[in-house]
């Protein structure tokens, strides 16, 4: 009887060993985070000039009203993706900071939320229709909401609020980082804003970290050639609007009307920009990939579009009698797809966000420098 009992107990184990479950299918999506016991609470931050004040929900690792911020030396601002999950982006950044004790003491982490017009719980605050904020569009005009404000202006106002020597007496630098839709906003803002120079004149550094956007703002009418041999004007018969904003400089938004188009690249080249491209973000059918013809003109996948744009910058910088200094760095993050946590947590990601001496985790993805073709 004992023998038969042992056999009965071992039978299921043997069956499982002989017929193992298949590996889960990799949809190139991040594993959902477990639900928190206590929901993370955002803070209402008032921004804007007198007469046009508005509130934005912002997650932060300090109480922005009560805490003493005079010892803060670095501010890390992270911009969420199309899901508007600013709480998750905040947690990713906060965990990276916590893993670097020297940074944990002097780094302020901010994650603003560009709420949708249908989102509940954000009444009286600026809100946008769908993902229009990623292009710099104005917030909606509606009863109970503040007057429309562009998402570019929100970034201007947020960064200028940090340039406050009374509250942030020790502040030395700001990093503005985004992934996916957030990277689209950060990239276009980095090209078009007029705030960068003012902050630098006040002694602050400003870095833009751009990870896996679906498309880029081209500064000429050229796009990658289909044969991979350089750049040329795209066929308007295929996409008549390929060079209109948000993909090109035709019909720039009101925010950029006073910008000198002819000097956009020279100014952008001088700004501190880091591109992070996922080596496995190469699915042309990804459900969140921009498939408009203006985006398709830039390449078939996020990785192709990113590498094409990086090489395009080197081509522009080398043109003319005198080359333009390019202060941009570009990295391919090995084996990582469309995953903000792993992108920012990679070796080059952590260093871009927190400085060259910052330490990444033991499982952090490795990075390869993307060099100009032919070098």
What is the topology?
Elements: H1 2-18, E1 43-47, E2 54-60, E3 74-79, H2 86-98, H3 101-104, E4 107-112, H4 151-162, E5 173-179, H5 181-192, H6 196-201, E6 205-211, E7 222-224, E8 231-233, H7 264-269, E9 272-278, H8 293-296, H9 302-318, E10 328-333, H10 340-344, H11 347-354, E11 367-369
Q: What would your notes on this structure say?
A:
The chain has one domain (65-369): 3-Layer(aba) Sandwich (Rossmann fold). Helix content is 28%, strand content 16%. The strands form 2 sheets. A 9-stranded mixed beta sheet has the order 1-2-4-3-5-6-9-10-11, sandwiched between helices. Strands 7-8 form a two-stranded antiparallel ribbon. It has 375 residues and is α/β, with parallel strands linked by helices. The protein has 11 helices and 11 strands. It has helices at residues 2-18, 86-98, 101-104, 151-162, 181-192, 196-201, 264-269, 293-296, 302-318, 340-344, 347-354, and strands at residues 43-47, 54-60, 74-79, 107-112, 173-179, 205-211, 222-224, 231-233, 272-278, 328-333, 367-369. Mean pLDDT is 90; it is low at 1-17 and 21-29. The protein is globular. This is AB hydrolase-1 domain-containing protein. Residues 1-17 form the signal peptide. Keywords: Signal.
CATH class: Alpha Beta
* Major beta sheet, strand line-up: 1-2-4-3-5-6-9-10-11
Write down the domain tally.
1
Q: In terms of structural class, how would the helical and strand content be classed?
A: alpha/beta
Share of residues in strands: 15-25%
Task: Give the N-to-C terminal Cα separation.
Answer: 76 Å
Overall morphology: globular
CATH homologous superfamily designation:
Alpha/Beta hydrolase fold, catalytic domain
């Amino acid at each position: 009887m004992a023998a038969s009992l042992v056999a009965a107990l071992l039978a299921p184990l043997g069956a499982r060993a002989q017929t193992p479950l298949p590996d889960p299918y990799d949809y190139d999506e991040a594993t959902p985070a477990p639900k928190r016991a206590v929901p993370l609470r955002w803070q209402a931050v008032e921004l804007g000039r007198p007469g046009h004040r508005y509130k934005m929900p912002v997650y932060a690792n300090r109480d922005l009203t009560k805490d003493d911020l005079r010892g803060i030396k670095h501010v890390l601002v992270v911009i969420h993706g199309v899901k508007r999950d600013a709480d998750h982006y905040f947690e990713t950044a906060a965990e990276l900071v916590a893993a670097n004790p020297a940074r944990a003491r002097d780094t302020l982490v901010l994650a603003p939320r560009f709420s949708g017009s249908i989102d509940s719980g954000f009444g009286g605050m600026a809100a946008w229709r769908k993902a229009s904020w990623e292009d710099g569009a104005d917030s909606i005009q509606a009863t109970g909401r503040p007057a429309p404000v562009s998402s570019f202006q929100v970034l201007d106002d947020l960064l200028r609020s940090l340039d406050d020597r009374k509250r942030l007496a020790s502040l030395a630098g700001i990093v503005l980082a985004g992934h996916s839709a957030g990277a689209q906003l950060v990239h276009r803002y980095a090209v078009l804003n007029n705030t960068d120079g003012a902050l630098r004149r006040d002694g602050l550094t400003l870095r833009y970290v751009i990870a896996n956007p679906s498309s880029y703002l081209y500064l000429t009418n050229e796009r990658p050639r289909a044969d991979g041999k350089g750049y040329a004007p795209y066929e308007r018969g295929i996409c008549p609007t390929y060079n209109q904003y948000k993909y090109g400089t035709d019909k720039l938004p009101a925010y950029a009307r006073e910008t000198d188009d002819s000097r956009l690249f020279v100014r952008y080249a001088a700004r501190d920009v880091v591109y992070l491209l996922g080596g496995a973000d190469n699915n042309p059918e990804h459900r969140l990939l921009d498939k408009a013809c203006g985006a398709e003109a830039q390449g078939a996948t996020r990785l192709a579009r990113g590498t094409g744009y990086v090489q395009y910058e080197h081509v522009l910088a080398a043109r003319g009698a005198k080359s333009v200094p390019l202060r941009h760095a570009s990295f391919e993050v090995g084996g990582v797809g469309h995953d903000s946590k792993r992108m920012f947590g990679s070796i080059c990601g952590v260093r871009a966000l927190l400085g060259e001496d910052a330490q990444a985790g033991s499982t952090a993805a490795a990075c390869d420098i993307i060099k100009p073709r032919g070098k």
